[in-house]
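To whoever is on call:

I kicked off a structure prediction for a single chain this morning and the downstream step that reads the tokens threw a length-mismatch warning. I double-checked the sequence; it's 222 residues and nothing unusual in it as far as I can see. Pasting both halves so you can look.
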Amino acid sequence: MTILLLIIVPLILAIWAQSKISRTYSHWSKVPSLGRITGAEAADAVMRKAGIHDVEIVPIRGHLTDHYDPLHKRLALSEENFHGTSLAALGVAAHEAGHAIQHKKKYIPLQFRSALIPVTNFASQLLPFIILGGFFLGILGLIKAGVIIYLILTVFQLVTLPVEYDASRRAKKELMSLGILQQSEMPGVNQTLNAAALTYVAAFVASLANLLYFFMLSRRDH
């Protein structure tokens, strides 16, 4: 029963979180900002105020593919957010600019997460073999390896939470202080960024559940 809950609960949470961000973003992406400033312009304004002038803002394909690349100092916005003037577009763009500010100020959780990325990527590549050998074939050594891998992934997801929440906090603050948005427009930004944050919470819960699951399997075989 416990193992079943470890599978079902994170799955339901992940589906709900993804549905929440899809519905919320879809709604607020249809509501234009009063100032009609684009997401790219908003991100640029937020970074310039922080003294950041060496980060390139580029459009990329895909839906909600927005991200900040600290290695290449590139802020990538999906085309709908790069060119868009909606409350959702401005919120997402300012959020990514918040990551650029974190990078400039050497925000410790961001630095820690960045250091974990190579390890996390390698661990993720091993997962299919771990699941095949550990779960389906019951190989104890691989089950124990699964515990280690999911521990790494869980730590990564845990560190991601303050990084994302802090970026959203910075975004909301700067959108108001720069006069890009009015107070009456902030609910749209708040709802969009809060919904996005739920996806990171869901990812953490899923990693934690998988960690507990593999740990229980390793103990069962003793």
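Update from on-call: the warning came from a stale cache, not from the record. Cleared it. Sanity check on the structure: Residues 140-177 form the longest helix (38 residues).
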